[in-house]
Amino acid sequence: MKDATQDHIKPLIKDFFDQNTNTFSYVVADPVTLSCAIIDSVLDFDAASATTTTDHADQIIQYIHEQHYKVEWILETHVHADHLTAAQYLKSKLGGKIAISHHIGIVQETFGSIYQLDIKAINAQQPFDYLFKDHECFKIGEIEAYNIPTPGHTPACLSYVIGDSVFVGDTIFMPDYGTARCDFPRGSAAELFDSVQKLYQLPDHMRVYLCHDYLPENRHQYMCQTDIRTQKESNIHIRIDSKKNDFVEMRNSRDATLGMPKLILPAIQININGGKFPPTEHNGVSYLKIPLNCFKF
Predict the structure, then answer these.
(1) Does residue 293 fall inside a structural domain?
(2) How are strands ordered across the β-sheet holding 23-29?
(3) 237: domain CATH number?
(4) 163-215, pLDDT tens digit by residue?
């Protein structure tokens, strides 16, 4: 595996924060070629009226136009349960390939069964343009990049190492907030521990960009960036010297107290389909499914 930190080109990184879902999205660009990737985009969704809007995505589009960037990739770190992806909308406006881990099939099968979706039909029209193999190398312009499989929150989580930075999705949060939950179907606290240990093998100075931030009581500003050294030394859930059994017990106990993410039911069925809406019915309207008495949180 190539150490992308040796690449002499430092990516330009712009973050976009959606406070409704506490989500950070990113545009990561090569300053030489002006090629870029969009990571973990958000489609605005009002649950009460079941309507989508594109305010957040349009901010990204405006920024990319202003910078004269060319979109090569629209990257997903995982299938999100807390927001709908804007990947399809962004692709329609900017181009680029929508990509995710090849382990997405596990998530599709798991939730396809819950929602009674025809996964074979979905995959016959493959909603994702590219499925990354584990540790696969790729480029954004001339910037070297690769992925690290980091399952635990979901079985298809990826972290993307791009130049001197790593985008970790829902693996870890700011050091004062800890780690992601592991109680979704096919999640695993033991796997998450192992995934974080992979991240902790990266260089101490590597910048770490997070998908979410939730303000703890003693902090008043949202933050999206830290570094590997700080995480290893001070993450409240998992430091470099943490024991696996202790972490698993803590994570499982904590997860048992958590409620459902407020947008999980609409988000999952959209996101396992690469952001595509269900086919419209005879009246021109798409419909989502809500499984009753299925999730016990």
Answers:
(1) no
(2) 12-18, 23-29, 35-39, 70-75, 97-101, 130-132
(3) 3.60.15.10
(4) 999 999 999 999 999 999 999 999 999 999 999 999 999 999 999 999 999 98
How many folded domains does the chain comprise? 1
CA distance 244 to 91: 40
Which residue's structure tokens are 């798409």?
A: 286
Residues 211 and 82: their CA atoms lie apart, in Å, by: 11
SS3 content of the chain, % helix, strand, coil (to 5): 25, 25, 50
DSSP 237-291: S--TT--HHHHHHHHHHHHTT----TTHHHHHHHHTTTTPPPPP-TTS-------
Position 297 in a domain: no
* Structural domain range at position 90: 4-271
Q: pLDDT per residue over 86-95, tens digit each?
A: 999 999 999 9
CB 195 within 8 A of CB 149: yes
- Dist. CA 72–CA 193, nearest whole Å: 32
Contacts with 232 (C-beta within 8 Å, 6 or more apart), sequence order: 200, 204, 239, 240
Q: Look at residue 284 and tell me if it is in a domain.
A: no
Evaluate whether 167 touches 160 at the Cβ level (below 8 Å): yes
Residue type, 115: Y
Asked if residue 291 is part of any domain, the answer here is no
Q: Helix, strand, or coil here: 18?
A: strand
